[in-house]
Specification:
Blueprint (H helix, E strand, L loop, with lengths): L1 H12 L19 H8 L2 E3 L20 H9 L4 E4 L7 E3 L4 E2 L1 H16 L3 E5 L12 H21 L7 E4 L16 H20 L9 E4 L5 H7 L11 E7 L3 H4 L24 H9 L2 H4 L5 E6 L9 H24 L2 E5 L20 H8 L4
Helix pairs in contact: 5-6, 9-11, 11-12
């Protein structure tokens, strides 16, 4: 009897084993995506690393280490979004076969996250833009490749527990066209990409039958999600999430060239952008109630604001104050509106939060602002 008990406990701990008591897999909890989202907390992006199309270090960041991910955990984050490129690692263009060494490397980084008891999201990121052709004439070709790629990814990660989520794509749009008013054709085709993603993952079976999946709106734009996102058909109920991004107002959050705004919000002591202030955050995030009311939690997969290193003196001091206010307000508002926020950290001076070389927090004021939302 003692031997049986030891074997049973060991069985419950290893991957792929199921409880003998109720036949359920303890690694895939019987909880909805909405319930899981409440456990994910505040997330961080491992940007400009595994999605770098010239290789992991080709965009200026060093190779990802377990020490870096441990530093992310110690900073207070409980989820990590891992943007990934796959197409550049395909060894056979006819079958879309992904290099196994690359699959293993992505798995290694995912393991860094899971061993720190955080949630991980992997996706197909920009990937040289092969998905950025949402025309009817390209629908079949892109969907065929998408199905092949996600079948391989899902198969490789089939035995991972429910702390690993899959996200179908990133900011899919017509290459070179960032318009927030795309033609209906583009919206329809991009919605088909979401359906192909769900179908491919579920068809691999096993734990992927219950894995929590994240679908994207066109451009991951919040307004377009509200107006045009169609939730895919899914044989598994309550296992889908919606992803959007937020970088409003552009003049403060993203615009690099002058004229730009370095102030934001009610704390500013000078002029701010005429739109995109606190009231805009509330009205924009409020649109996501369309999904959360129906049981679909929303992943705010990217958000943030440029740190304007060119500023000095009082202007830099004012900018840091406004930027911290922005990060605190957006993070708190996202959580309040049923969203899981993931700060965009690309390792570069404009968005870096945690150094990829020293593993130290670069902007403690920004980190503190983000983490205030947990209180």
């Amino acid at each position: 009897m003692k031997t049986f008990t030891i074997l049973l406990l060991f069985c419950l701990l290893i991957s792929g084993c199921k409880s003998e008591n109720n036949g359920e897999d303890p690694a895939m909890r019987d909880i909805t995506s909405m319930e899981l989202s409440k456990l994910m907390g505040i997330g961080w992006n491992l940007g400009n690393s595994l999605e770098a199309t010239g290789g992991e270090t080709s965009w200026g960041n060093p190779k990802v280490t377990s020490d870096l991910i441990r530093a992310v955990k110690e900073a207070g984050f409980t989820s990590v979004r891992i943007p990934v490129s796959w197409s550049v690692h395909i060894t056979d263009q006819g079958t879309h076969k992904i290099d196994n060494a690359w699959m293993q490397r992505v798995g290694q980084v995912v393991n860094y996250v899971l061993v720190n008891d955080m949630f991980a999201i992997i996706n197909i990121h920009w990937d040289n833009g092969w998905m950025n052709d949402p025309r009817e004439s390209s629908r079949q070709q892109v969907n065929a490749k998408l199905h092949a790629v996600w079948t391989q990814i899902a198969t490789y990660f089939k035995d991972y527990d429910d702390r690993l989520l899959f996200a179908g794509s990133n900011e899919v749009h017509m290459e070179g066209d960032w318009s927030s008013s795309p033609p209906a054709e583009y919206l329809s085709v991009q919605n088909s990409f979401n359906q192909t993603f769900v179908d491919a993952v579920r068809e691999t079976g096993g734990r992927n039958l219950k894995r929590h999946l994240v679908i994207q709106s066109y451009l991951t734009n919040i307004d377009l999600a509200y107006r045009s996102l169609i939730i895919p058909q899914d044989p598994t109920p309550n296992r889908l999430m919606v992803e959007v991004h937020y970088y409003d107002p552009y003049e403060f959050a993203l615009k690099e060239d002058e004229p730009y705004d370095f102030r934001w919000g009610s704390v500013a002591t000078g002029p701010v952008t005429s739109w995109g202030q606190e009231d805009w955050v509330e009205s924009t995030f409020g649109k996501m109630k369309k999904f959360t009311d129906k049981g679909f939690p929303v992943i705010l997969g990217e958000y943030g604001a440029l740190y304007r290193i060119q500023l000095t003196g009082d202007e830099l001091k004012e900018h840091k104050k406004c930027r911290s206010h922005y990060l605190e307000y957006v993070t708190e508002a996202a959580i309040r509106h049923g969203m899981v926020p993931f700060y965009w950290d690309n390792g570069a001076p404009d968005f870096v939060l945690i150094s990829r070389s020293s593993n130290q927090v670069v902007h403690p004021d920004a980190l503190q602002a983000i983490m205030k939302a947990r209180q």
